[in-house]
Each structure stands twice: as C-alpha cells, then as structure tokens.
Amino acid sequence: MANTKWVYDFGGGASDGDASMKNLLGGKGANLAEMASLGLPVPPGFTITTALCTAYYDLGRKYPEELDAQLETSLKTLEAKAGKEFGSATNPLLVSVRSGARASMPGMMDTVLNLGLNDTTAEGLAQLSGDRRFAYDSYRRFIQMYSNVVLNITHDVFEDILEDFKDLQGYELDTDMQAEDWQEVIVKYKAAVVTHNNGKPFPEDPKDQLWGAIGAVFGSWMNDRAIFYRKHNDIPASWGTAVNVQSMVFGNMGDTSATGVAFTRDPGTGENLFYGEYLINAQGEDVVAGIRTPAPISKARAAEMGSDDAPLEVTMPDVYKQLTDVADKLEKHYRDMQDIEFTVEEGKLYMLQTRNGKRTAQAALAMAVEMCKEGLITENEAVLRLEPAQLDQLLHPMIDQDAKAAATAEGRVFVKGLPASPGAAIGKIVFDSDEAADAAAKGEDVILIRIETSPEDIHGMHASKAIVTARGGMTSHAAVVARGMGRPCVCGAGSLRINKELGEVSVAGETLKRGDIVTVDGATGEVFKGRVAMIEPDLSGDFAHIMEWADKARTLSVRTNAETPADVEVAKNFGAEGIGLCRTEHMFFDADRIPVVRAMILASSEKGRKEALEKLLPMQRSDFEAIFRIMGDKPCNIRLLDPPLHEFMPHSDEEMADVAKGSGVSIEVLTHRASELHESNPMLGHRGCRLGVTYPEIYEMQARAIFEAAVNVAKETGVAPVPEVMIPLVATKAEVALMKARIVKMAEAVLPKSDIKIDYLVGTMIELPRAALRAADIAQEAEFFSFGTNDLTQTTLGISRDDAARFLGDYEKQGIYEKDPFVTLDIEGVGELVQMGTERGRSVKPDLKIGICGEHGGDPASIAFCHKLGMSYVSCSPYRVPVARLAAAHAALKA
Amino acid sequence: MANTKWVYDFGGGASDGDASMKNLLGGKGANLAEMASLGLPVPPGFTITTALCTAYYDLGRKYPEELDAQLETSLKTLEAKAGKEFGSATNPLLVSVRSGARASMPGMMDTVLNLGLNDTTAEGLAQLSGDRRFAYDSYRRFIQMYSNVVLNITHDVFEDILEDFKDLQGYELDTDMQAEDWQEVIVKYKAAVVTHNNGKPFPEDPKDQLWGAIGAVFGSWMNDRAIFYRKHNDIPASWGTAVNVQSMVFGNMGDTSATGVAFTRDPGTGENLFYGEYLINAQGEDVVAGIRTPAPISKARAAEMGSDDAPLEVTMPDVYKQLTDVADKLEKHYRDMQDIEFTVEEGKLYMLQTRNGKRTAQAALAMAVEMCKEGLITENEAVLRLEPAQLDQLLHPMIDQDAKAAATAEGRVFVKGLPASPGAAIGKIVFDSDEAADAAAKGEDVILIRIETSPEDIHGMHASKAIVTARGGMTSHAAVVARGMGRPCVCGAGSLRINKELGEVSVAGETLKRGDIVTVDGATGEVFKGRVAMIEPDLSGDFAHIMEWADKARTLSVRTNAETPADVEVAKNFGAEGIGLCRTEHMFFDADRIPVVRAMILASSEKGRKEALEKLLPMQRSDFEAIFRIMGDKPCNIRLLDPPLHEFMPHSDEEMADVAKGSGVSIEVLTHRASELHESNPMLGHRGCRLGVTYPEIYEMQARAIFEAAVNVAKETGVAPVPEVMIPLVATKAEVALMKARIVKMAEAVLPKSDIKIDYLVGTMIELPRAALRAADIAQEAEFFSFGTNDLTQTTLGISRDDAARFLGDYEKQGIYEKDPFVTLDIEGVGELVQMGTERGRSVKPDLKIGICGEHGGDPASIAFCHKLGMSYVSCSPYRVPVARLAAAHAALKA
C-alpha cells in the first residue's frame, strides 16, 4: 500500500487521469481530467481515489498513512495552478469538495462549497473580489453547508437565526442583507455551532476544514440514503466513492455570473435538441435543489415551454455559443449524450462536470437508434445504450389519447407542471413518503404529491406509481430520481397548494383529499382528477429496431412463464420463443374446476381420485390445446402439479361449509382431511413429484391431457406442438426415472394417434440443492433441466420467501445480502449450485437443454450469469420478455 | 461379459471358490467351497454368483446368454461327483436350491429342497432308498415347497388337501400316511397346481424345475421382506444374492438320520460352550421353522435347560464327536464363532453350512474379549467384532434382580420359555405385527406375542420392545431375528394359549388381554405380569475393555448433545469428551422461565426486551455453571438461541388466557403478537442468527451468561471451562462477523474478571447449503464449524422432517432413498456439501475444528464418513456416546 498513488491532479495543463479511469477516479473525477485534457475550461483540482474509500473502510474508518503527504503535494500543485494560496489572507484559494462514485448517484452524496473561508480569508476574498457582500454571503453559506454536512447540524438552526435576524432588521428577502448583516449573522452562526457541536468551535484552519469535508464525503458513502440508492441501482458497496477537490469558481458574483446544467439531447424524449436550465447570480446547488425555478437555456426550448424567463442564449449569447460548442465536442468525444454542469464567473465559462446523461427509457431508445443512424455508434453499441431494467417502462400502458381528450373536455385536468419523467399512472393521493411506503406495502397504487422531494423521500418515491411536485425544474431531485426509477413525474406544478396536515391539495380553490384518485401523465406534465384510460405501448419503430439488433446479438433463447391464453398471447407478441414454465396448478383454481379438484382430494380411494381426474382431464386438455394453438411449433414446457394439496382446500369456516354442501361430504370429514393435509413447512412438504410418487394417477391424467391436446392441435393445424413435460421438486434420479416411465407410457399410448410426428421431452426442475449436486445422475434420465431458482434460493439460503419480510429488510440494511436474493440471483451461493448443476448435467449429456424459470429469468444481472453458464434459454413473465431479450444481448455483447 | 464365469463348483474334491470370495459367491457358497477344501464332508454342488443376480436385474430380469452352457457343464460335473444322474429313473440326483447373499439374511430368501423329483425319479428314489414312504413323502414336500416358492401358491391349498385326505382316511397324524397315501395326495396336489397356476401343470422336467427355482431365488431378492430386511440391516440392493445348487442329503431317512443347527459358542451369552439343537428323522427346514421343538445337542446344555429330550451326544455319540471336532476346526479356521448346519444321513454326517454366527450384543462383547484373551484375535479385531449399532442393547436398563425376586414371590411370573435373546422390556401386549407397528408409530411400547413368527412379522418385531412365542427353539425365526435386532425374546413358551380374535392370551387358566402390561426378561425366558423395575447396565468388565481398545484405535473425538446436568453427567460417564451441542432454548421452556421468555417476546421495545432478558440472565448463567462444573476442562459448545420465537408462545386458547392473566397483557395483544410471529415455513423463517441480527440483545444476554458462568466456575473450581459459542443458521460471512463482534465484546467485558485465563472460541453451525458452499468465506470469521446435518438434510433434500412421514415411507419402499436420510447421512447429496464445507473451511484455516452435531453424529455409517473427511469430532445423544466411540474406532480400523 505504501506506494499506492491515492491522489490524482487535473486541470491547469497537466492531468494525471483520464476518462478511462472511472473505476479509480469516479465518474466526475475521470471526466474532469478528460475535459481538462481536451482543452476545455476546467477549474484545476485533484481527485482522491475510490481505492482510498475502500482502504478507509477496510482500515476501520482510518486513512492510510501516506495520504497526508500526497494531499499536501497536490494542494501545493493546485495553489500553483490557481495562482492562489490555501488559507492566504490576501489571495485565498477556495475549493469545492465533492463526492464522485463510479456510477452517478444524484443527491446521494454530500458536497461542500467555498471551503477555505474563515474570518481572515473571507476578508481577503472581500478585498480581492471587491464585493464584500458576496464574500460574507459565501462565508455564511460555507458555514451552513459545512456544519450541516460535516458536523451534522440541521439547516433549521441556521435558518432560524437568519429569519430572526431579518425580522429584527425588518428585512423581507435575503437580497436585503448587506455584508455587515452577514458578518453579524456569521457570529451568531458560529455561536450556534459551538452549542450544537458539543462545545467545539467551527474549524478556522482551512486544512482542518478540508480533512473534515473529505471525511464527510467518505462517511456519507455509508449513510442510509446512499445504501438505499445503491440497493435500488445495483451498485456494490465495495466500489467506494472518490473525492474531488477543485478550486472554486463563482456563479454568484453578480449578473455576469451564472450557473447551470445542460443535456446535449433531451433526456426525456431523446430528441436531438440542446437542453438545459440556468440561474443568473447563483451557485450550482441552487439549480439542483429546486429552491429557485431556473430558466431554460435555449430560445427554442423557452418557446416550447412557454417560459417567460430569458434564456441564456439571450442573456449571454457568447457564453451560449461557447457552451454549445463544448457540448458538441463532448458528445462527439464521448459518443453519447452528455449531462454537463457549468458556471459562468464574471462572463467566463467554466466546465464543472460532464457525464453520460441519465435518460428515460424512451429517450435512451430514441437516442440509441438515432445515434446509430447518424453513424455515431454501431448497432451493438445502440443495444448496449438501453438498460434492460429501464426498458420495462416502455412496456407498460400509457394514457389513451382519446380518453385524455375527453377528460380534458370534462374539465378533469387538475394541474399542469413540467413533464419531468414520462409514462402514466393512476393512484390514490398521498402526501408523505412513509405513508406511500405503507400503502404500497398493502398493495395500493399511490401517487406521491410533495412541495419538493429530497433524498429522504427515496423510499416513498420508489413505493409510488408517480410523483408530482410543486417546486423544482426538470433537473430537480424529483425529476432526476423519478427518471432513474422509471416513475412518471410531474415537476414544478407551482399552482399546487398542499396542506399535509389536513390531507388536502388544492389548485385555484379546487381541492382533492388524501386517498382521492388521480391520473398522472408524465409525458405532458398533466394531472387528471379520477381515472383516465390507458393503452398498450407502441412496440414498433425504434423499439422494433433495437429488439431486432438485440436478437441478432444474443445467443440465449427467451421464453415465458405463462399458462393463460391471454398471457401466452402477450408473451408471444413480446417475442417469447416458447413457454419455459406453464404452471398447471393455476388452471386448477378456476371456479368451475376447484370443486372437481377438491373432490379428487377428498376421495378416500384411488378409484375415487380417478373418477375426479376423469372429469379434470378434458378441462386440462382444452387448456393445453389453447396454448399449443398459440405457440405453434415453439416448445412448451409444462410442469406437472407442484403445490401441496392443502392449497386447494377451503380455509375459512364459511368456505368449509360451502364446500361441504357442494361436495356432499360432511364438515367433519372435510375438516379431518384438511387437518391431515396440514403441514408445518409446506414448502418442504408433500408436493412436487412427491405427489406423483404417492398419487401416480394425478400425473398420469396430466400427461394424458398434454399428449391428447398435442394430437388434437396437430390434427387441427397441421403443425406439431412441441411439449416438454416437466417434473417438479426432484432430488434424485430415481424420482425422475419413476415419473418418466409413467409419462412415456402415456405418450406411447396417445401420440401414435397423430399423423404428424410429435416430438416431446421429459425433463425436470432443478430446484433443490441435492438435484444440483446430483445433476449428473439426474441427467441420465432427464431430457432437459430447468432451474427453479425461486425454490433453489429458498432451500440454499434457508429462507422462506413468505416469511422473509420480517428480517430480510434488516439483512439488506446491514449489507448481509447486497441485493434481494429473490430478485437477483445470489451468484456466490445459489449461483454455484446452478453452475454445478449445469456442468454436471452436461457432463453426461453435452447437449442437454438447460433453462431457468425462476423470477431471476427476467432479471438482467441473473440473465448475464445464465449466459455465462451457456444455458439454452431463460424464461420470464410476459412483460419481462423484451427486457430479457435485451439483457441476453447485453450479456452476449459484454462477454 | 461373454467370458465371465458365472458358475463355481464345490465339493467332491475340487472347489473353484474359497471363503475369501464371499462377495461373489455369497456367504453360504464361499463357505461351502472353503469347508470342502478343508476336507470336511460337504455334499457337492455349485454356486451361481451374485454378479449374475446383478446382471439379471440390469438386463431387465433376463439371464446372460452364456449362463446356460456354464450351468450344463457344472451339472455334468456334479453328476459325476455324486455318482447320480439328474432326472434318472434309476439313480436320480436330487438337489437343494438355496439363496446365499454376502450378508446372511435369515428367513428372507426362499429355498427349495428335493428338486429333481417327478413321477419317474420319485419311483427311482423309492427303489434306490428302499423306502417308498420316504420317497413319496419327499416328492409331495417338494411339490408343496416348489409350488409355494416358485409358483406362488399358498401352503393352505396343499394343507387343505392333506387334511381332507387324512379326515377321509380317518388318519390323525402325518406319520399315519403310507407311500400309497402320499401318491394319491400327489395326484391331488398336481391337480391343484393346474388350478392355481393359470392352467399350467407342475413342471415334470427336472431342468425346468431347476431354472424355475433359480429364477425364484433371484426374484425373491426383490420381494418386500428382503427389501425391508436390507433396509434395516444397511445392505445395498446392488449386492445381489448367489444361488447354491447342492446334491441332497436326507436327514429324514429314519432314526439313523437327523438334522440340526449348532453354534460353536453360546450366541446369547457368549459362553464358550458348544450349543445347538437337532431333530431325528427330519429335514433341515423343520428345525428352523419351529414346527417341532428340537432337542439340545449336548448333555451339558440339556441338563442346564432341564430338557427331557435325548441330546445328540447320547443318541449318536460318534456323530456328536465328529461334529464337535468339525466345530473346533471351523472356529479356529475362521477365527470366529460359527453357526453351522448339518445333516446326518443314515449315520453319516454332512456339513451343509457354516458362517460367522449372529449373536447378541452381550455375546459379541463376551466372545470378542475372551477370544482376544485366548490369543485367537487381536484387540483391534476384538473391537471390530462388536457392531456399533448392536452396542446400543448393552446400554439400556435390564431387570433389577431384587424387584424380580419380589415379583416372583408375588406370583407375577406369567410364563417361562426359552431365553432366546437377552435384555428386558416392558410394554403392552399385542398379537399382530400390524397392530404392533401401528401402536409403535403412536409412541407406545408393545410386546408382540405370537404362536410363532415368520418373515411377514419382521416389521412387527421391529416395532416391538420384545417378542414372545409359544413355539420354536433357540434357532427359530423369532430367536434369530430378535437377536439380530437386539430385541429381547422369549421362545417356545409352550403353555401359552393365544386367542388373537378375542385378544387374549392365557396360561393355565390365567388370562391377560390385549393392552395389558407385561415385563419380558429375555435373559431368563420369563414373562411377568405388570411392571418389574429395571436397572442401569454394568459398564465395567468386558464393556470397559472393548471401549478402552476402541479409544486406542479411534482418531475422532466423541462429544455429546446435552443441556441438562443429568444428561451431561450420563454422557460424561459414557465417555463423552466434551459437549458438541448445548441447545440453550431447551432451558427456556422450564416452567419458571417461560413466563419471562414470553415477557421478552411480548415487549414492544428494546427496553422491555432488555428488562426481561435481565431476569433470564442469572437463570442461564446457573445452567452454564452446572454444565461447566461437570465438564471441567472439556470443551462445551453452546448454541445461541435457535428456534423462531413463536415456539415459545402459548398455542391453545386456554393457554392464551392463562398467559394473558399471568403477564398482564391483554388477550388481544397476545393474539396479535402470536399472529405477527406466525410463519408459513418456520423452518426457513425468522430463527437462528436471524434473531441475533434483529434482536441483538438476546444473543448479548446469552454470551454474557456463558462468560460469567465460566468466570464463576473457574473461580470456584480452579479449572478454566472451555466455552465454544456457536452461532446457528448462518448463510453468510457477514452474519458471523456481526454476531462474533458482539460476542467478543461481551467476552472482553467479562473474562478479565477471572484470575485463570479462559480460552473461548466463536464459531458457527453449518446447516444451510449456502454455508457449506461459502465455507471458505465463513471460516475467515468462524473459529470452528459444527455441521448441523438435521437442518442441512432438510434444506438440501427440500424435506421437512415434520412433514416427511406422509411420503418418506413410499420413498423408502420404492428405493428412492435407500435409508432414511434423517438417520443415516445422505452421503451422495448432503455428504458432498459436508465434504465441501470441510475442505473449503480448512483451505482457509487448515486446523479448523470441525464437528457434526446432527442426529447423524450417533449413526455408525455417518460416523465413518465423518472420519473419512478428517473431522475433529462427532457429537451425539448421551446414550449413543459409546456407540459413537466404537463406530469411530471401526472407521479408523477399516480405513
């Protein structure tokens, strides 16, 4: 470690790093170095690496010894480049300290500006800038920000002091405050710090300030918000964050100064249009925080939005021209849409950040296709530009235009704000993030309405179907986070008056209450009272292009888990290449069937069971016929009955009575049978092929239904269906051998009735650890494997999914499992069994067809793992099929 | 396969095989060859190998082609040796066909005698023997036996014909039947065969008869009784059985002929005394079947038994002398006690079988020690002579002699029979094996009383605590099987009158009913009415010798699973070298503690929980003090709380009300909390270290109690206890790290209070598949592993032990699991995870202490596996400790 370089300089000529070093320098640090090397105007600074963050935590929140010396050196270099001196009374260097992880984590990490100010340097700054008010305003901002971020003193403390002071002076606005006023406030601020910081004064030494800020950045990597964000964005804690220390430039030095944020293309729609917002005489945080609503940058955009604020293009035409040139240069250089931050200090443009811009799925899609057509990127790159997880947004319903027109005509538009994140949603109004999370946990659809959002609202935003705010622009916290999450969002709907206590929101006298239904259209910024009909999304155009390119790139086949004809149809339209899991028990629950199923269960003899099964046979057969008809010559994997029989029994006393009446069986017999069937741990009980072992007639009926359906559909359509009969919950070769023999016997009895040859396979779920371990044995009998990773996760981790809620939250919070193992495959644990099962199965049958049909089959990270193992296919729910196709392409292209 | 030798000749000079070829020739075949080579009088014959049995099943119950030619050749050789011809009308060769597996399976396999008889050869035999009655009696016996064994026609069919015939003739006994009578009966027998064999006649061709009998032997390998016996004796189905075809000798050719069975030492007590029974003018089956009660062989034994029957030593002194010489020779040759079968044909002795004799545990122990002292075998061989599973019998109570004297004085002796298998038992009378099995399944202790037993009774005998029969001698089916199972047995209690229908048994007018309690003393042959007190067995003498030799031989350490001081004491006396699993939750259930435990669970805050835990602390501490005091400097592995909290909650409404009253909490709150705690699959729920993650204060209290107890006991005794703190249900390294940090903190707070240094370890159960897979990670934190193979079996196989009863029976019956995986480790599946966990754990810490604490820790086969893996110790219930010590020695000696 002694020779490790922990600090990298950038700007002012030489830069140690470049854009390729994102893992080490974080996104911001790497791009600052890269921009500086491109000759763009970047204030000089240095980056403390992400490796240091990791070392810091490995050492128990301590720094490696050699950091001190390296930091000193870089600070000297920075002073030389800036021509200023840190802590100087006459020519003070001020710096910003910002976090910068590998992946952008907006709003998650804390920032300190104006660091280096104290009573001496503030006076120096006042002299140097000739603007005392600016200098002391900056100083008090610094104390406030530093105290909040580093010393954990809430903003309220300082805001109260300021408000009291203004009241006393009879001031209305901050702009009424003069330099001397700020100086007085600063004295009060410092006194408050002593009170709230265990008697310790605000650090006067700029070096102490710097170390404090660095420590706060690293510390914030492990705060709850950061952990939550990482969890929902699949970012491992081990990546760490870098710290960027950069000499300050000031957007708040009067009307020739400004600060802003821009995107090289529209991040909401993907349109190739320079797009951004700015504030004159402001510091960067003001734009992002949404405290003042910023103005558009370009005339075109201002016109489009009907904004009255003067765009940058008008207020500072030269800077605007320079900025668009920089933007062009950056987009061509990075070959992707850029999200840039800039500051104008007394007419001079500085670039503070560039990064690949976050975008909605719709924008990602449009940009990828357009850039590909422009020749900027290849088809494969275009495919990689669309995150599979994001794609989900495009696959869900949007607002029906006719219904919307009608709703508008009916006067049901409640409010209109900024179209901050597209998509539409219907739900009940809530005003609080905890309330949103609680309601969502109960399965309710909610719309979160807030004045503005902050990082504390992340869980509430996640729980909501859409977010509406009264304040903040297109780059406000709410907008950025909502786009990242794929939630529709309407921002800056300024006419909203929210009274959280009363549970009311009103616009111009019209009031809605907590729990009222609204429909949000994130694509237009409108919020409607009541429900507005939605329609299926358009899957042609750009979507079809990307999917076509993805299909060319991928090697994994994609199937679907579906059993109803409606679902099978949807999945087929989404590109499913077969059925990976048809759960036959779902068909048993239909109202007209459950009595027959119960009659079977209540039968006291094999004969009685067979009579009931005789009645079920034509029903199951017609189910399978419908599926075969839709799927044609595509393989259909049908799993034989899996759940324990008690799942089909009535539960409440009332139901019991109904069933007793309907079935002619006494309540006593019914209750007795139900208690006989009761299990302590049904998940590990009498289910799956264990039913087939003890009640062979059930599986025989199902096999017969499958094969008879295949024969019928072959006759009817001239196309031979491809049934794959799957035996669940296998742990031994013997079980497969036993079940398979019966299935094959049934096939041999039925299939010869078809003129067209019908090929079928008999295979097994691999969903118990023992099955994975004994895969070589089992493959001697099984003709395919399908990894049932839901149950495999339950048994390997010893966690019942139904009961996990009680502790899995604590587990994720404490980092015991980085991701929910039921969403993303636990590759280290369950994954090893999947790998073992795959390798051992193929050691016996090199061409063994292997798929996955757990929830993980629709999860991009898990799909990548399946690809790596050389699986034949993944299978997922119908709406996830395009996600899986894209994820499979990503896996192939990244391999 | 074409060159495989399937048939091995023996006797009459040359033998192809010898005793070392037991695996191929079966025990009987190998020993017949060996005896012939030793120059003993063995009727010649040949053996069809066990390999053929396996080939037969592999080929789908078909023989390899080349068998036919090999059999022909051997038959020719046999004819030459015997000087007779198979199927000859004048000098017919008759043969016996018997099964002979690697391991002796008494009563399990079928035998056919007198094969080769038909109308022609029977007449030939009549001429040759000059005894028409003998010839036709033999013929009808053959038809009856062959029809039963090969053609599956019940004995009843033939017995009815015979009874009808005798009635018609006015005969009382079989001995009234003359040759002509038998001839008439034979005609009727053959007609009955046609009726009951689908119209097919009895085979006349001796070759057809031979093939039929061979097929029946191989077929019987897979009958239910054989499968059941194998299961309970750990014999794999793959071993197969051999078939022995041997020329007949006749013990039923008049009063100079006889047949008998003998043991070279007493198989019940181990006494070095020649011991056996015989019948004059009888065939071998008559002795074993228990139809006639045989006479003792020796004068000494006859005197001891007070038998009035003349012993062989008196009736045939020369034969007796020759027989004892043979017995001596065989025991010295085989260096073990022999179980021999012999026949005397017209004064000439023939040896039909020798094998190592089955014996009671007591006899095995006595013989092993005595033979070692005689210099016949070494200490290690002596150790190997005692089967660990058998040892169990010696560790359980026997009848108290004083109580017995009192019971006798009170006239409570119900009946006295033969002391066929030692040990004592108390239970309720049953008269039927199914009834016995049903009652045992309900946890009742039953005594099976039968006229005689047959292979159909095996399951009933297994389910009973003791067996009593009215008929049959010391080598009857009941006696042999009971000794093998370690069940006390009283045989041949001839005065018993059993009326199964009425559910009564009486002796001389005194009647007991089904369900009445009796006490059986298998060591004396007495059955007492009611209960007679029992005492602990003597663990000194021979037992102590063998254990001392075993301890020298073994490398595995043996600990115990115990938590009460009484159990810990018993285990220590049985030689436990530490505690492998102290289940702290058992201590929570005490009547004075459960209210406090419930108060903790019902507490709504951490504060409330801590208050309750404060009360539990001194209780737990005193538990641990007691254990440390007994165990001294031996390691004590203490598992922190494992079960889900709902296990401690009241269940019935009544209990609820009681608890509500006692705790001052309303029923509503109580019910709500109970339903909150309810889990779908508690086995996979909120338990083990998951409790420690969500309620750290529980584990902290337990750790504190452990360390404080250690400090107190160290002070009190001057000996430092060796606590090993075990974290249950771990799946990740993070869990161990989290828990360990808290435990270590507690240790650091408490242990310095001791003057004597107290060493402790913090380690983990490995009981989830993921823990085994990630053992290398986990070993970075854990200081020991203990494989919890109960839960590991549940999760790996996906079988809840509580629910398995519903299907595991079917599973074993169908051979899906050869043994109950909760009794003997599933080495192929669960075993691989254990091996993986061991290897991966040791890859990080080569000296990692590794043990096993599931039920398997007391199972000999599983212990052998643990030895092979190089584990540090096994841990089992107190009474299994000597079994484990012996099994560990076996494992080491066999390695």
UniProtKB/TrEMBL annotation, chains A, B:
Per its record, what are the GO molecular function terms? pyruvate, phosphate dikinase activity
Q: Where is the PEP-utilising enzyme C-terminal domain?
A: 540-891
Q: Does the keyword DNA repair apply?
A: no
| Reactions mediated catalytically | pyruvate + phosphate + ATP = phosphoenolpyruvate + AMP + diphosphate + H(+)
SUPFAM superfamilies (UniProt xref): Glutathione synthetase ATP-binding domain-like, Phosphoenolpyruvate/pyruvate domain, Phosphohistidine domain
Q: Which InterPro entries does the record cross-reference, listed alphabetically?
A: ATP_grasp_subdomain_1, PEP-util_enz_mobile_dom, PEP_util_AS, PEP_util_C, PEP_util_CS, Phosphohistidine_dom_sf, PPDK_AMP/ATP-bd, Pyruvate_phosphate_dikinase
Q: Which UniProt keywords apply?
A: ATP-binding, Kinase, Magnesium, Metal-binding, Nucleotide-binding, Pyruvate, Transferase
Q: Residue limits of the PEP-utilising enzyme mobile domain? A: 444-525
- Co-factor requirement: Mg(2+)
Q: Which residues form the Pyruvate phosphate dikinase AMP/ATP-binding domain?
A: 23-58, 63-296, 320-371
Annotated signal peptide: none
Q: Fetch the Pfam families from UniProt.
A: PEP-utilizers, PEP-utilizers_C, PPDK_N
| E.C. designation(s) | 2.7.9.1
Q: Does the keyword Metal-binding apply?
A: yes
What functional role does this protein have? Catalyzes the reversible phosphorylation of pyruvate and phosphate.
**Membership in a protein family:** Belongs to the PEP-utilizing enzyme family.
- Name of the featured protein: Pyruvate, phosphate dikinase
Gene source species: Hirschia litorea
Taxonomy, top ranks, is: Bacteria, Pseudomonadati, Pseudomonadota, Alphaproteobacteria, Hyphomonadales
Q: Which gene encodes it?
A: ppdK
